Amino acid sequence: MSDKRSRLLSNGVFLAGHCVNVVCTLYTLREGQNSLKDKRVVEMKQQMFKFLTIWNVIFHMIYLVVNIICEAQELFEIKDKGILSPFKAAKQVFFDSILVPTTMSISLVFWPMFLYDRELLYPAFIDDAIGAIANYMMHAFIVLVAVWEMRYMSPKEKYRGLCLINVGLLSGIYIAVLLHNHAETGLFPYPLLYMLHGTMYLNLLWVSCIVLIYAVYHAQWPLRRLVSIQHEKKRRSNKAK
After folding, report:
1. Could you tell me the residue range of the domain that residue 38 belongs to?
2. Does residue 66 sit in helix, strand or coil?
């Protein structure tokens, strides 16, 4: 199977996985036994779009839809009169500066915290509200998608300046959304933020998160070069056969 067909198929599978998870999660939240009885579940539903994991799933779905369209156009040689050209350049920047840093940062923070004390980020009642599978889809499956896509994306840092700006904007916008939401409703999506609110440690947390996502952005390039080298070796090996 050619790289383009393999990529198109895998992107379709990944998108379907995200869509099924989103539909099942929304249905469970709406129809689940705890959806109306548990105040914590009600508050979580009110803040659904304040969770970075939800933002990231949306990022994944946007990227996959655009990528599927672009790959299908190239694979089936569909004339687009240059309409897709801006999207092809934009998805490279989006992948480099938004999808990979967000995905890897979420996983790097979530799983150690989850194993140490899940109540700080992802309380046990959420499993009853949306199911345990959704947890793995939003915090582990996303890494598979990102690493798989690295096989096909350029391992060279082409848009460094723009990407660094995007990382900073994303960090600032998300922190601003959390603070605005708390000012308006008195709620935070993560229990840890209640513990740190009103102390200097909350500001230290913001700074730490910004440092982390920039560090992840820079750390992706050695990983991508390694993934690209291994993919090229496998491709050449398959051709030799």
Report:
1. 3-240
2. helix
